[in-house]
Design goal:
The complex is a heterotrimer.
Chain A: H1 5-23, H2 27-49, H3 71-101
Chain B: E1 7-8, E2 13-14, H1 16-35, H2 60-63, H3 72-77, H4 79-85, H5 93-114
Antiparallel strand pairs in B: 1-2
Chain C: H1 2-8, H2 10-31, H3 33-61, E1 64-67, E2 89-92, H4 94-117, H5 124-143, H6 147-165, H7 173-203, H8 208-214, H9 219-236, H10 244-251, H11 254-279, H12 285-307, H13 313-337, H14 342-381, H15 397-410, H16 417-432, H17 434-459, H18 475-493, H19 495-511, H20 513-521
Antiparallel strand pairs in C: 1-2
Helix pairs in contact in C: 2-3, 2-5, 3-4, 3-5, 4-5, 4-11, 4-14, 4-18, 4-19, 5-6, 5-11, 6-7, 6-11, 7-9, 7-10, 8-20, 9-11, 10-11, 10-13, 11-13, 11-14, 12-13, 12-17, 13-14, 13-16, 13-17, 14-15, 14-16, 14-18, 14-19, 15-17, 15-18, 16-17, 16-18
Classes of the chains: A mainly alpha, B mainly alpha, C mainly alpha.
């Protein structure tokens, strides 16, 4: 039961994020939703890498036991870095849009349509 | 000799080189007919002007057909289709996300039912 | 010695050259703009050279496998890892090499064109750096043999693309387009990563070959498949997830749009790689094949009908890009739908796939060319509105010739390259389902109709007073367009040569899942 809890939380986070992106009209809040999806994916990745009783794969004076394969942790770190870059880029886009359009409402930021 | 250039499409074939040769021959014939035409005619008389039932010829810029007037009939005939399709492209970001996730949900259902 | 080292490390060089080039570009740009332009072109030329060498290697000696960080590039599975290739592996088969070649060819055309077209805008250092990074993203996606690596290059592709789309702020409208593109591609990218996590959780591996060899097609695999398929199809601009395409394509600088077309096709490659290599025969190929076919038919029809009433020339062309993507989805989808039936596959499935794949490179050439001509017109007149243009045939003769070549190619008029690939698609799809082939032909006719309108309203008619002082565009732009036109004509006149040389191996590589796995895992 508790073993599955992180996966449930990860799925909930993704669903929350997607719902935010669908129902919030403010562009900043949509990006917050996107960040929630990203957090959910990161949590899923880390939970997949969890091994009960495993130890960190640091060889210097390591205690006895099974070492954890650090692939997913590395993936999570990479995704966090990518996420920072994306969020920064998106927020700067919204900044420029707000300055030029005077609004960050998705229903008004629609000069491109049809 | 031309086999190497022939595109095999499984059930048929297509030979661009032969096509180009035929096209060139047709062009040469057309050119020959054109060359048979009258070369000497008075160029700065009424003969070269368009005849519009005696009306004055309008300015060049006025007779240019702008893009918005082209295919008016097509879009008018397909009005029922376009009046539904064009408004779907709302330009609202939430709708874009909704379409994306909606298609994903639909494909989930299809793949789930088929499996 | 030097030569051998070079030839051994081609897959790494294919990425290292443009990546190094991208990060050095702004440094050189601080010293001198001319030196930076020269550097960027040199880097792109070097990338193309590496891509050509790599393609030659793949075509002569089969899939090239490159293991990063190993003692030798072909040591894919470390001795003490228990049979799992831990390191990041590049596996370039004929399909990947084909895409890399197409991308670097268009990249060179775009780079030459940019030399003139970008001169008037600020921030050129960033422009060239991002352009090269976009090329890195595309090349990485088509070369990698590792799912997570694929995701990383997908994100590089999306970020560089979105930044370039927004780079000319244009009163905020370009930024709006960039935002829409970036939000959708990021969400799609995250769902791809979610699917990768699901696959890793089950099979404990990220390598495509390893996952493919262990694939069981459990319910979790089905969820992962749908996520990968739909997210990548969205990135490729398939209807009804195409809404970002006209926005982004119309607002990006024209040179970038030509490259964005290739970036979308890298995602299309991702779709094909996932369904053919990652899942292969384990998936319900008839259902997935029909899903891809329906996406393709919708893309063809909705794309072309939305294009006809457009007023903005680049928005119109962007809808055509959506429409042409439909042909590729249709061709390869038909191949997938009959994947399990060897007899049907031999009769028309392979030809349909070859047509679809051939259309990818043809589309990259002629659509890139068309966007470049649209950019040339915008460069001289300052407008993209078809209602305001007219009579440019008097002053921009070269641009007009290139436009005619591109327009006839996209409409599938012989003897240009679009006809060759469309013919292969029509004839094979007709055997599969005649209705689909008829729709494909109707779409071609509508495409021609739409480009007749564009041609008439831009080039025909009397010389308009407002464009009296319009001249032909500078030489580098003409050279860029001429390069692509030449390829369009060559591919159209000698289609069988191209098919034999590049397309048949590429289609074969997609179908031959066992060969891909064996080349990475060593015949396991």
């Amino acid at each position: 039961m508790f073993f599955n809890l992180p996966f449930i939380v990860a799925a909930l986070l993704v669903i929350l994020g997607i719902t935010t992106m669908l129902i919030k009209r403010n562009l900043i809040k949509m990006i917050m939703g996107l960040a929630l999806v990203e957090a959910g994916v990161n949590l899923l990745l880390v939970s997949i890498g969890y091994r009960a009783g495993g130890i960190a794969p640091i060889f210097t004076s390591a205690p006895d036991g099974v070492m954890v394969m650090p692939t997913v942790q590395a993936m999570t770190l990479t995704n966090i870095v990518i996420g920072i870059a994306t969020t920064a880029l998106l927020l700067s886009f919204v900044m420029v849009i707000y300055r030029m359009y005077g609004t960050a409402n998705a229903e008004k930021v629609r000069k491109l349509r049809g | 000799m031309l086999d190497a250039y022939t595109l095999q499409t499984g059930t048929g074939f297509w030979d661009p080189v032969v096509w180009i040769v035929v096209f060139l021959v047709a062009f040469l014939i057309a050119l020959a007919i054109w060359l048979l035409g009258e070369k000497e005619y008075p160029r700065d008389t009424q003969a070269v002007k368009p005849f519009l039932s005696g009306n004055v010829e309008p300015e060049k810029a006025d007779v240019h057909m702008r893009a918005g007037n082209l295919y008016w009939g097509f879009t008018e005939a397909m009005k029922g289709y376009y009046s539904r399709l064009v408004p779907l492209h709302t330009g609202v970001l939430n709708d874009y996300v909704l379409w994306f996730l909606g298609v994903m949900a639909l494909v989930f259902v299809i793949v789930g039912v088929a499996a | 010695m030097m030569q051998e080292l070079l030839l051994q490390n081609l897959p790494a060089l294919l990425l290292a050259v443009p990546m190094l080039g991208a990060f050095v570009t702004p440094l050189i740009g601080r010293a001198s703009g001319g030196a930076r332009n020269l550097w960027a072109v040199a880097v792109m030329l070097a990338t193309l050279a590496v891509a050509v060498l790599l393609t030659a290697q793949v075509l002569s000696s089969g899939t090239v496998v490159y293991t990063f960080g190993a003692a030798a590039p072909d040591l894919t599975v470390p001795a003490d890892s228990g049979g799992i290739p831990i390191r990041i592996i590049f596996a370039v088969d004929a399909m990947g090499a084909f895409m890399a070649l197409a991308a670097s060819l268009v990249g060179l055309g775009v780079m030459l064109y940019s030399l003139a077209s970008a001169t008037r805008s600020t921030g050129q250092n960033g422009y060239y750096a991002l352009l090269l990074l976009l090329v890195v993203g595309i090349l990485g996606m088509v070369c990698t043999g590792d799912m997570f690596n694929f995701f990383v290059f997908l994100e590089i592709n999306s970020l560089a693309g979105a930044a370039l789309v927004a780079s000319r702020v244009d009163k905020g409208v370009a930024v709006e387009a960039g935002l829409k593109y970036a939000v959708l591609s990021t969400l799609g990218g995250l769902l791809v990563l979610f699917a990768i996590a699901l696959l890793y959780g089950q099979y404990g591996a990220l390598n495509i070959a390893v996952i493919a060899s262990r694939m069981l097609f459990t319910p979790l695999d089905q969820i992962a498949l749908v996520m990968l398929l739909v997210a990548l199809a969205m990135k490729a601009g398939a209807v009804p997830m195409h809404f970002w395409t006209p926005d982004a394509y119309s607002m990006a600088p024209s040179s970038i749009t030509a490259l964005l077309v290739v970036a979308s096709q890298a995602s299309l490659y991702g779709v094909f790689r996932v369904v053919f290599t990652l899942y292969g025969l384990t998936l319900d190929y008839a259902t997935i094949g029909w899903i891809i076919i329906i996406l393709g038919v919708l893309s063809m029809f909705v794309g072309v009908t939305m294009a006809i009433p457009q007023k903005d020339v680049k928005r119109l062309m962007a809808y055509h890009a959506v429409s042409q993507t439909g042909y590729m989805l249709l061709g390869v989808g038909v191949g997938l739908a009959v994947l399990g039936n060897q007899q049907l596959l031999d009769t028309y499935g392979v030809i349909a796939m070859e047509g679809g794949i051939f259309h990818i490179i043809n589309h990259a050439m002629y659509k890139g060319l068309l966007f470049l001509t649209a950019g040339a017109i915008f460069y001289r007149t300052g407008t993209r509105n078809l209602n305001q243009l007219g009579g440019l045939g008097h002053s921009m003769k070269w641009t007009m010739v290139f436009f005619i070549i591109g327009a006839l190619a996209i409409a599938g008029i012989p003897p240009f390259n679009g006809f060759a690939s469309k013919l292969m698609i029509y004839e094979s799809v007709f055997l599969f389902n005649p209705l689909l082939a008829i729709i494909a032909m109707v779409v071609s006719i509508l495409t021609l109709a739409s480009f007749v309108k564009v041609f008439h309203s831009i080039f025909m008619g009397p010389r308009l007073p407002e464009y009296a002082d319009v001249r032909e565009v500078p030489a580098p732009m003409i050279i860029g367009m001429a390069l692509l036109s030449l390829l369009v004509i060559l591919f159209g006149v000698f289609p069988q040569e191209v098919v034999d040389l590049l397309i048949t191996p590429a289609a074969g590589a997609l179908i031959d899942q066992g060969g891909y796995i064996a080349s990475v895992l060593g015949g396991a």
